[in-house]
Amino acid sequence: MPTLDTNATLADLVTARPGLAPQFDRLGLDYCCRGQRRLVDAVDAAGLDLDQVLDSLDSVSAEPNDEDWSAMGPAELVDHLEATHHAYLHDALGRLGALVDKVTAVHGERHPELVEVQSLFGELRADLEPHLLREERVLFPMVRELGAATTAPSFQCGSLANPIRVMLAEHDTAGDLLARLRSATGDYAVPDDGCASYQALYAGLAELEADTHLHVHKENNLLFPAVLNAEQTLVT
Question: Does this model's pTM top 0.90?
Fold first, then answer.
């Protein structure tokens, strides 16, 4: 398999080869909120050895997605986002919220870092739940209206660049909270005395991080640019 193009952006690499996403997560390379950096620059900023990184990434399958979300138009992509990532978060946030409370109550005295994990998860949930509703009730309906329009729709918010700007800022907040959660959990390392619930919590938080990174990537690097381009085309 040929070596990856080190001048390609992290976002473009994940779009072309989605299997790279978990590898970038493992290496601490942010391909969603900071996905417009070139691979070579991101690796250098992280203090990693480029040749070693390329060796680990070249083994990742280049097989395309079963569902090629990179080829979807904006309206189809918002349907995909709601059916996959939004549905996942609506379930996972409540389930993990109950689990983090349980584990902290049982193990918090011996593992005081769990108090921080519980607090950070609460902040993340408080950020994501209203964010999902704003997308589902405000932004995504406007994206669907835009997709069906032949002339530029008149939205109360003005250009869709305005709500998108808010979404981008909220994505940055979520990304920061996820990074702090990973740090507080020691990269989701369960202590030796961790019970099954402890293990389920950390596995669930790791899954939440991976899914949210991919979710944000699809919005920041695919949906939002396509929406702004479509709007500009209709305006002109």
Answer: yes
